[in-house]
Prior knowledge:
Elements: E1 6-13, E2 16-22, E3 28-32, E4 35-39, H1 44-54, E5 64-68, H2 74-82, E6 88-93, H3 96-103, E7 119-123, H4 126-131, E8 138-143, H5 163-172, E9 173-183, H6 188-196, E10 200-205, E11 214-219
Parallel strand pairs: 5-6, 5-8, 6-7, 8-9
Antiparallel strand pairs: 1-2, 2-3, 3-4, 9-11, 10-11
Helix pairs in contact: 1-2
Amino acid sequence: MTRPWRTLASVDTIEGILELRQRSETDFLIMIDGRVLMNSFSRTSEEELSRLSLASLNTNPAPRVLVGGLGMGITLRTALELLPPKATVTVAELNPIILEWCRGALAPLTSNAVADPRVHVELGDVADLIAKSKPAAFDAIVLDLYEGPNHASQSINDPFYSNAALAKQRAALAPGGVLGVWSEDADAPYAKRLAAAGFAVTTHRIGSGGRRHVVYIGRR
Length: 220
């Protein structure tokens, strides 16, 4: 018999009530205004995002990685398993409550990834962090943001997926660096913008059957 979901924590936000729910040791949901933001049991695409983004860094003894979006820490945990002891990982997370949950109820899910000595969490917008970064500051930028690029992110002012945003991301990457982007679904206009920005682009559909999430890899 399936256990019912129980609410562990909730907080009011401008977008509605943000909730953390649990039904077993490893089954969690984060919801906003009644909609599922993320869950812990459909994690393959997040894990593949890290693997694909970091695959080319295996000869770098001290790679510098930026992860945009902490979520439940699944993308971060996979990255840490792949990275060497001298790596540095900066995580940009907008919501301090998410960080609090990852240090608390969600910590066992990722072996407390945020406490790894290689990790530094910046509370703030990843777009702002990239914009103020020095040139070639990172060897990889991994964006695991809600929904990813889609028809609603075609604006010339979009802070994550526009031409201007891509130019800033490319400038923040070292030569040979990698931009990895998670997307809920394929977005052909974004792939074209990514290539036009000077990246060598590969598109990866994750999983099989039904609706499949997408990972875009752009190599500088």
